[in-house]
Amino acid sequence: MHLSPDEIVFWQVGFFKLNATIAYTWGLMLLLTVGAKLITRKLSTDHTRSRWQNLLEIVVTGIEQQIADVGLRHPRQYIGFLGTLFLFVAMAALCTVIPGYEPPTGSLSTTAALALCVMVAVPLFGIEDQGLGGYLKSYLKPTAIMLPFNLISEISRTLALAVRLFGNMMSGAMIIGILLSITPFIFPIVMTVLGLLTGMVQAYIFSILAAVYIAAATHVRRPKPESEPEPVSDIQTSTQK
Amino acid sequence: MDSLTIIAVASIVIAGITTGFGTMGPAFAEGRAVATALTALAQQPDASATITRTLFVGLAMIESTAIYCFVVSMILIFANPFWNQAMALAAGK
Fold first, then answer.
1. DSSP letter at A144?
2. Overall domain count for chain A
3. What is the DSSP string of B19-59?
4. Contact present, A234 and B58 (Cβ < 8 Å)
């Protein structure tokens, strides 16, 4: 019984070792990149199009719609980052149907790296949207007393993102491992199906939370007040508490 | 009891208590959240998409507290640093 795919080492030379996390992460990256390249090589705009192009269009427009629902004005600007996060985490969970595969998101290193990406990207998008001074001022938002709490929340939410994804993926693999030793035949399959569902939900949660954080960083100051401020979407108010 | 036994007993007992008590609060909270969401769905079926999305995000955030407890108890059982150190000391003796 191992806690994470870090402990499966395929190949080791001195300090460098190739463990299952790295191998499967690169495998997923290769799969996603080559797949997207192959599909977008011959795109068509008329009515006859390949089923793979349909699939990709559904995925892209679906992600775009979800980002827009969170309250980000121009989803195209953020879809490169948020869409990649979603697709990677979702594929990492979906590939568990392949025997012998371990989700790389079941390792705390991978999820910490993803969460750090979010922690770096949120200020970058915020600065891009409202300038360096404007973004830094948002840390003093209600009053200047809140500055340390705002900084703590930056760090704690990064930690929460990482541990949440790690815990969910790890618990799925762990429960299947424990059940295999108790009730070997039917029940692990049911738990695998449940693991697929929680994996998709976690991928959705991860990217939606990143989108909410970006929306919170970019929405503080509106560039030009139009007729009336649009109502803040309820997903934002519910998760900001 | 030598120190290895004490560490093992404490780790196992605390792991059980952590998961048991740590899932109690989130279980109540998730029950309340789902009940409220069902009431809202019954009153406003048109807003089902928004309610369901918010419910899922909220449930995942509530559930993450239980997951933290689970991670702590898993670390206590499978990757216990105190146990590893005690084993290293015992092997070195």
1. G
2. 1
3. HHHHHHHHHHHHHHHHHHHHHHHHH-GGGHHHHHHHHHHHH
4. no
Neighboring chain A residues of B60 at a CB cutoff of 8 Å: 164, 201-202, 205
> What is the tens place of the pLDDT at every residue in A137-165?
888 877 888 888 888 888 988 988 898 89
For chain B, say whether A204 makes contact (Cβ under 8 Å): yes
Rg (CA), chain B: 21
For A168, the enclosing helix (H) or strand (E) is helix A147-182
Q: Give me A59's structure tokens.
A: 């995925």
Percent of chain B with pLDDT over 70: 99
**Which segments of chain A have a pLDDT < 70?**
1, 219-241
Question: Which of A57, A213, A193 is closest to A122 using CA atoms?
Answer: A213
Orientation of helix A75-94 relative to helix A51-70, angle to 10°? 120
Write A154-161 long-range contacts (CB < 8 A, 24+).
A154/A119, A155/A119, A157/A209, A157/A213, A158/A115, A158/A116, A158/A118, A158/A119, A159/A115, A160/B64, A161/A111, A161/A114, A161/A115, A161/A118, A161/A206, A161/A209, A161/A210
- Angle made by CA atoms A162, A163, A169, in degrees to the nearest 5: 95
Rounded to whole angstroms, how far apart are CA atoms B93 and B87? 10
CB of B53 within 8 Å of a chain A CB? The answer is yes
Is A110 buried (19+), middle (13-18) or exposed (0-12) by CB count in 10 A? Answer: buried
Query: How far from the centroid of its chain's Cα atoms is residue A45's Cα?
Result: 30
Instruction: For CA atoms B76, B82, B85, B90, give the dihedral sign.
Output: negative
User: Token digits for A196?
Assistant: 């697929």
Query: Domain residues of chain B, as ranges?
Result: 3-92
| pTM of the complete model | 0.80
Name the residue range of residue A149's domain: 5-239
Distance CA A12, CA A114 (A): 25
- Among A63, A157, A163, pick the best mutation site for testing chain B contact (most B Cβ within 10 A): A163
Q: What is the CATH number of domain B3-92?
A: 1.20.20.10
